[in-house]
Please model this.
Amino acid sequence: MPNRSTLRPFPGTDTAHRTRQVFVSDLILNCLIGVHRHEQDGKQRVRVNLDLTVEDQADGVDDKLANVVSYEDIVLDLRALAEAGHISLVETLAERIAELCLIDPRVQQARVRVEKLDVFADAGSVGVEIERKNPKT
Model:
């Protein structure tokens, strides 16, 4: 059996058009978010789902973290953003998350879904989903 760490793309594979999806599913953050007075005094649970289209490296991943978009770094950045202070709108939070992700030029596109979980007793969540493309690609 071949050593998987030495596998390379098939000869002739067009690496210029290869992508991978990096995702974060159902991350729960506690945020100061909302336009109403009662939302400015206490944190609310917010669920974040993130799907990134990432350009594959032409020379492969080589089993090295430096050669991929790290979902760990993304989660740490999202946690820091949630702690950075009050945000009025979920739309604003979604835009800031997309901007964070698109800083990395390998990220071609970001789909961000932000849901407030405790707004209505008779609804599982309310929120917004956006999709943004990297202007650098």
